[in-house]
TrEMBL record:
<comment type="similarity">
    <text>Belongs to the protein kinase superfamily.</text>
</comment>
<dbReference type="GO" id="GO:0005524">
    <property type="term" value="F:ATP binding"/>
</dbReference>
<feature type="domain" description="Protein kinase">
    <location>
        <begin position="44"/>
        <end position="325"/>
    </location>
</feature>
<feature type="binding site">
    <location>
        <position position="73"/>
    </location>
    <ligand>
        <name>ATP</name>
    </ligand>
</feature>
<protein>
    <recommendedName>
        <fullName>Protein kinase domain-containing protein</fullName>
    </recommendedName>
</protein>
<keyword id="KW-0547">Nucleotide-binding</keyword>
<dbReference type="GO" id="GO:0004674">
    <property type="term" value="F:protein serine/threonine kinase activity"/>
</dbReference>
<keyword id="KW-0808">Transferase</keyword>
<dbReference type="InterPro" id="IPR001245">
    <property type="entry name" value="Ser-Thr/Tyr_kinase_cat_dom"/>
</dbReference>
<dbReference type="Pfam" id="PF07714">
    <property type="entry name" value="PK_Tyr_Ser-Thr"/>
</dbReference>
<dbReference type="InterPro" id="IPR000719">
    <property type="entry name" value="Prot_kinase_dom"/>
</dbReference>
<dbReference type="InterPro" id="IPR008271">
    <property type="entry name" value="Ser/Thr_kinase_AS"/>
</dbReference>
<dbReference type="InterPro" id="IPR011009">
    <property type="entry name" value="Kinase-like_dom_sf"/>
</dbReference>
<keyword id="KW-0723">Serine/threonine-protein kinase</keyword>
<keyword id="KW-0067">ATP-binding</keyword>
<keyword id="KW-0418">Kinase</keyword>
<dbReference type="InterPro" id="IPR017441">
    <property type="entry name" value="Protein_kinase_ATP_BS"/>
</dbReference>
């Protein structure tokens, strides 16, 4: 951890604040003491728990100066978890954008790793689409579109505006938080990858969440910005339809959202795709446009997917030329082995109210490597060979 911050990170000032020069200007975050965070979260009490993910639990807290914070506490001090912690802090230190969740600070003691963020009052998009707020219908059509566009803008920034470029690798509804105005903030950079200038893709161990994973990444670990574009396409379908990226049918068969949507798209039955919770209150042209963008994003061939710049302008309706939109989605059929890995763990039982169930983050070895590339478990800037 220390090495990340000492080699390329900020300097600690007298006050214990870290002054950083980052893309959007200067900002500062600070090192918290464990005691401070323990007090702020009422001893990490169950009552303060906001949710639980692969990394650990997230707690609401209030600092002595009245700031509301969300504290992510590492579950176990394994080397893998430590790496995610280091990546998250390192990446967060590089980004500053209105649609990306920034860092408030961290605590890295001998036996604790905690990350501190601003508390985001409307929690995650997942909680509104499928979780504790799903029945409250707070996400009307306009909000949904703002969430889609804002998330896309956050990704555009990561892919095109920071150097080196950043691939998020875990775009999904639980990693999009909603502020008090329901503006989205993309969160969770623990799986992120930095892409050096001039490198088109890397080959890595697969991390991410089944249902959102691009096929070339799920099967062969081939990672590029297009993987995020694919995941964004799935997220967009989820926002419009209110359905989960993958659902379990009676009999245990799993169906992806693209398999469900394809016949409706082919038949031009766009209205039938929209979340019934909206009770018909949506703009039909925008639905068509959003679905068309999603279809472009989830194409099997990564080279055919649009860049996030194009996605943003298409969603905003300011793309000048009429784009040829494919009407067929080649539904991704995940390999059996991958689906088998997607089983609830013991940790999931009775667990997280903000968790939609079995489709949690997973780390899987590659299934087969048709590209015959080397694989790297390391997050660092590995050139593809
Ligand atoms: N800054 C925050 N403000 C408010 N709620 C938050 C904040 N960060 C996280 N949460 C809540 O905590 C939940 C758990 O977050 P966490 O990122 O640990 O898990 P996850 O996103 O469900 O899964 P994964 O580990 O795969 O990312 C989120 O879904 C969200 O509801
Ligand atoms: Mg998360």
């Amino acid at each position: 951890m220390g090495s990340f911050l000492s080699c390329c990170g900020p300097k600690e000032s007298d006050e214990g604040y870290l002054d950083r020069n980052i893309a959007g200007g200067n900002t500062s975050w600070r090192i918290f003491t464990y005691k401070e965070l323990h007090t702020a979260t009422n001893g990490f009490s169950e009552d303060n728990m906001l949710g639980e993910g692969g990394f650990g639990s997230v707690y609401w807290g209030k600092t002595s100066d009245g700031l509301q914070i969300a504290v992510k506490k590492l579950k176990a001090m394994t080397s893998k978890a430590e790496m995610e912690f280091a990546v998250e802090v390192e990446v967060l230190g590089r980004v500053r954008h209105k649609n990306l969740l920034g860092l408030r600070g961290y605590c890295a003691g001998s036996d604790h790793r905690l990350i501190v963020y601003d508390y985001i009052p409307n929690l995650s998009l997942l909680s509104h689409l499928h979780g504790q707020f799903a029945s409250e219908l707070r996400l009307n059509w306009q909000r949904r579109m703002r969430i889609a566009i804002g998330s896309a803008e956050g990704l555009l920034y990561l892919h095109h505006e920071v150097a080196p470029h950043i691939i998020h690798r875990d775009i999904k509804a639980s990693n999009v938080l909603l502020d008090s105005d329901f503006e989205p903030l993309v969160a969770d950079f623990g799986f992120a990858k930095l892409i050096p200038e001039g490198v088109s893709h890397l080959t890595t161990r697969v991390k991410g969440t089944l249902g959102y994973l691009a096929p070339e990444y799920a099967m062969w670990g081939k990672v590029s910005e297009s993987c995020d574009v694919y995941s964004f396409g799935i997220l967009l379908l989820e926002i419009v339809t209110g359905r989960k990226p993958m659902e379990k049918l009676p009999g245990g068969v799993k169906r992806t959202i693209t398999q469900w949507a394809e016949p409706l798209i082919l038949g031009g039955r766009y209205k039938n795709l929209v979340d019934p919770k909206l009770r018909g209150n949506f703009d039909e042209n925008q639905v068509k446009q959003a679905i068309s963008v999603a279809v472009l994003c989830v194409q099997s061939d990564p080279d055919k997917r649009p860049k996030m710049k194009e996605v943003v302008s298409l969603l905003k309706g300011c793309e000048p030329k009429e784009k040829a939109i494919p009407t067929r989605i080649q539904s991704v059929k995940y390999e059996e082995e991958l689906l088998e890995l997607d089983q609830p763990s013991e940790d999931d039982v009775g667990g997280n109210p903000d968790d939609s169930g079995v489709f949690k983050s997973l780390e899987v070895q590659k299934m087969q490597d048709s590209y015959n590339h080397k694989h790297h478990g390391d997050w660092r800037l590995n050139r593809n060979v």
